Amino acid sequence: MPTSPSDSDNRWDRIVVQGASGSGKTTLAAALAAKLAVPHLELDGLFHQPDWTPLELDKFRSAVEEFTARAQWVLDGNYSHVRDIVWAKADVIAFIDLPKSVVMGRIVRRTLRRLFRREEMWNGNRESFRNVISLDATKNIILWSWTTHAKYHEQVPGEARAQADHAQIIILRTTREVEDFLHSIG
């Protein structure tokens, strides 16, 4: 299976990056978009409106439809509500499947850094101490990553293979594979 555009006759104009929270999706997607000089959409930044208000589903889907109507793009995020849109248009779906210990170390460091530095994430939103200690995985990103990590190992890549058989599915299991993938593009 080709792992870079140079290994294939196909161009990689539309790339989706998925994986557990804290795996490095946005970092990789932003780097790919910059390298290819194409637009990048971080689904979290679109979905999480001010005060963590979720964007209405029809508006969310409409905005994703509009973005993915472009000839070239890179998109990152795991929202099942728009998978049918992004997977249908993707040339490549790259899954970052790093070991749970690596992802958890990253998500804890990132979350604590954002919390203590009061870093703005999207639309004025910031991590809150209340969410970081919450036992509700929909509020606590660390707990969310812990509980959802396994589904990005087999389940979601399997669904992508079944639902987007036109797209190249790439699994990146180590930091080195992520770096090599980025360097192979463009």
Considering the chains and any ligands shown, give keywords for the structure:
single chain, 186 residues, alpha/beta, Rossmann fold, two-stranded antiparallel sheet, 9 helices
Structure described in brief:
By secondary structure, the protein is of the alpha/beta class.
How would you characterize this protein structure?
- The chain has nine helices and seven strands; from the N terminus they run βαβαββαβαβααααβα.
- By secondary structure, the protein is of the alpha/beta class.
- The chain has a single domain, classed as P-loop containing nucleotide triphosphate hydrolases (Rossmann fold).
- The protein has a five-stranded parallel sheet with strand order 2-5-1-6-7, sandwiched between helices. A two-stranded antiparallel sheet has the order 3-4.
- Helix 5 packs antiparallel against helix 7.
- The model has no long low-confidence stretch (mean pLDDT 92).
